[in-house]
Design brief:
The chain is α/β, with parallel strands linked by helices. The chain is built from 11 helices and 14 strands. The chain has helices at 34-44, 59-70, 120-124, 135-138, 140-155, 173-184, 194-201, 206-215, 255-268, 273-287, 300-316, and strands spanning 3-6, 10-15, 27-32, 49-56, 73-74, 78-81, 88-95, 98-104, 128-132, 159-163, 189-190, 220-224, 229-234, 237-242. The strands form 2 sheets. Strands 1, 4, 5, 6, 9, 10, 11, 12, 13 and 14 form a 10-stranded mixed sheet that branches. A 4-stranded mixed sheet has the order 3-2-7-8. Strand 13 and strand 14 (237-242) form a beta hairpin. Helix 1 packs across helix 9 (255-268) and helix 9 packs antiparallel against helix 10 (273-287). The relative contact order is 0.12.
C-alpha cells in the first residue's frame, strides 16, 4: 500500500437549477470527501491507496463504497454502521456567483469512528499516512482516531502528511486552532493555504508561515497559493513554484485535494521536492476545469501531457 487515509466521505446533492433550494425540483448526486478525493486522485495516477472510515448500512453508504472501490481505492477496512446514517450535503446555487452548502453530518456513521477501527497491521503496510483537519473536528472519537493513527504511523516509520483543511463551521476557533497546531507538531509534511496560516499564526506571507510550522517541528511545509502556485520550505531549501494557467475555472472545489494527490505522487516517485510541488500545482489546475471533486482528476499520461503542453506554450511565447 502506498497511501492510507481516514476521514468522512458523504453524498452531495447538486441542484440542476439556480435559485432557492425550495424551488429546485431535480438534483444529481456525487460522492465527495477531502481524504477520499486525494486517494482517488492517487489511484488514477497509478498508486495503491486505502481508506479507513465508517458509512451507514444504507444506500448512500453503498453508493460511496461502490464509487471508491470502482476508482481503485481499497475499502476493506471501512465499517458499515447499522445504527448511524451516511452523511450528506446539499448545494444551493442562489445565482451564478453565489453557492451555499448545507451539511447533514451530525451523528453520521463516520463521526463514530474510533481507535478500535484502526487496524495497525493494515496501516503499517503503507508508506504514507494522509490526514486532514476535518476528521478531528467531527467528534472526540474521531479526534482520538487521528492521533492514534499518527502514533501507529510513527511506530512503523510512515511519513505523515497533513492538510489543515480548516472548516470553521465544524468547531469553535479556539478549539480548531489548538487542535490543528497539536496535529502539526506530530507530522512530517504539512500543506496549508495562506488563509490557514493567517488563522493559526496571524501570518500572511508563505515565508513566515513556513517558519512558524518549522518551529513546531514540521520538516517540510508547502504553502498553497491558489492560481499563483505554491511555496515550499524543507531542510533549508526554499522556492516559489508558479501555478499553471487555467483559462476558465469551472469548479474550484477539490483543487486542494488534487494538489495533495499530485504532490504525494511525486514523493512516491522520489522526484526532487520542487518537481513534486509542480505536480501538485498541475493536478490542482486540471481539477478546477471540470465540474465535481473527482471528475477532473487525471491519470499519469494526462498529467504529463498537461505539464509538457503548458511548458511548451511558455517556451513559444
Amino acid at each position: 500500500m502506498d497511501v492510507i487515509s481516514l476521514g468522512e466521505t458523504m453524498v452531495l446533492f447538486n441542484p440542476h437549477s439556480t435559485g432557492k433550494m425550495r424551488y429546485c425540483q431535480d438534483f444529481s448526486t456525487k460522492v465527495a470527501g477531502a481524504e477520499s478525493n486525494t486517494l482517488i486522485g492517487l489511484s488514477k495516477l497509478g498508486y495503491q491507496t486505502g481508506w479507513i472510515s465508517r458509512v451507514g448500512k444504507d444506500e448512500l453508504g453503498a453508493r460511496i463504497l461502490s464509487t471508491l472501490r470502482g476508482e481503485g481505492v481499497d475499502v476493506s477496512f471501512v465499517i458499515r454502521d447499522e445504527d448511524a446514517p451516511t452523511g450528506l450535503f446539499l448545494k444551493e446555487k442562489t445565482n451564478e456567483r453565489h453557492t451555499k452548502v448545507f451539511y447533514y453530518r451530525k451523528g453520521s456513521a463516520a463521526s463514530f469512528m474510533s481507535i478500535g477501527d484502526i487496524n495497525e497491521e493494515y496501516l503499517a503496510s503503507a508508506k504514507y499516512l494522509y490526514i486532514t483537519g476535518i476528521t478531528p473536528a467531527l467528534s472526540s472519537s474521531c479526534y482520538e482516531s487521528v492521533f492514534h493513527s499518527i502514533k501507529i504511523a510513527k511506530k512503523h516509520g510512515l511519513k505523515v502528511v497533513f492538510d489543515p483543511n480548516l472548516r470553521k463551521t465544524l468547531w469553535g476557533e479556539h478549539e480548531a486552532r489548538e487542535t490543528l497546531i497539536d496535529v502539526a507538531k506530530e507530522v512530517d509534511i504539512i500543506l496549508p493555504g495562506i488563509s490557514e496560516g493567517e488563522f493559526l499564526f496571524g501570518e500572511q506571507t508563505p515565508e513566515k508561515i513556513c517558519s512558524q510550522f518549522h518551529q513546531l517541528g514540521v520538516e517540510t511545509v508547502v504553502v498553497k497559493l491558489g492560481e499563483k502556485g505554491a511555496y515550499y520550505s524543507s531542510k533549508g531549501e526554499t522556492s516559489y513554484i508558479e501555478g499553471y494557467p487555467v483559462h476558465k475555472v469551472v469548479d474550484p472545489i477539490g483543487a486542494g485535494d488534487g494538489f495533495a494527490a499530485g504532490f504525494l505522487s511525486g514523493l512516491l516517485d522520489h522526484v526532487p521536492l520542487q518537481e513534486a510541488v509542480k505536480r501538485g500545482c498541475a493536478v490542482g489546475s486540471i481539477v478546477v476545469t471540470v465540474e465535481g471533486d473527482i471528475e477532473g482528476l487525471p491519470d499519469k499520461e494526462e498529467l504529463y501531457h498537461f505539464m509538457s503542453a503548458i511548458t511548451s506554450e511558455d517556451v513559444t511565447r
